[in-house]
Write the structure tokens for this entry.
Amino acid sequence: MSHRTRVLVVDDSSFARVVISREISSDPEIEVVGVAVDGIDAIEKIKNIRPDVVTLDIEMPRMDGVSALKRIMLEHPTPVIVLSRLTVEDAETTIQALEAGAIDFVPKSPLANSGRISLPTGRLIEKIKLAAKVDVRRMALTARRNKLREMNGNCLKRDLSVMSGCSLSRNVVVIGSSTGGPKALCELVPDLPGDLPASLLIVQHMPAGFTKSLAKRLDQLAQLRVKEAEPGDLIRPGKALVAPGGYHLVVNSDDTVGLSSMPPKHGLRPAVDVTMEAAARAYGDGCIGVVLTGMGCDGRDGAVTISKFGGRVVVQDEATSVVYGMPRSVVESGRANKVVPLPEIARQIVEMCMEPVRLQRKTW
């Protein structure tokens, strides 16, 4: 038999530990090699067992999931999948966990009056297998190097302010991401200057409830204004709108956004392609597409459309991507104008925004 993915299950609920272990063990390629009852126990078990992947509960006694995750990434870098309840509080904590280095998350929900939990087993198994392929040690080293850059005063946001007196722009930047995206966004968006002559439309693959917390966190970090998109929100320079989970983010002819319930694309809603294609048709060569880390090929068709209407496309490179699926699909399509490490993407966006555009809307 080929190598089985060795998993450590961390949860303070004995019932949850049993259910999670049983469900993921139903896949012959996964082996549960241990369980832990809290963050402190998890750190010790990771040190001794050396699992390939950890599933981590958020709310636990003694040491919570986020605190444990930070220690894990510092002391024993290991791919982590967070299990989170569908509550506002847990959504905000989940964003913190993703920012701290968790590969992905899976929502779990208690079944009313039963003491049981509902778990999307198929998705959890898929994400465990994907996480096992991620080189988190490299990610941890990259994060430390980026931190040193900031401490040394070389952070991009210090020297990327747009020159005063530049002409008004018709630019819109569509950023698409999936697995590894929240952490990448928490690094990229704060690097963009507050006077960026463009509006940002951000599409991160996330379920409803979690995108609002992502927008809130980005707004805390960024110089731009960031919010979860609502129907009729204006597309304006210095403003970023995050597509809400469960809806496609579309661009209207009057420089506003709309939310669409049309069928998922690639099984996804929101989908990056939908927003990129709408923005390309509305803004022509003033549209810039950015494709970050993520699984699958969402963003490829959007990049093709942006290129067709005269826009530019920036892609995150493989070395800094958690998963190189989405970026690779764009590169292989031949539509990437720039393929650069994550820390250099902000500069590319600013430089492209400073290029002259024809300021004419394309035909719908």
Observations:
- The chain has twelve helices and 15 strands.
- The chain has two domains: 5-134, 166-353.
- Residues 5-134 form a domain with the Rossmann fold fold (CATH 3.40.50.2300).
- Residues 34 and 82 are 16 Å apart (CA to CA).
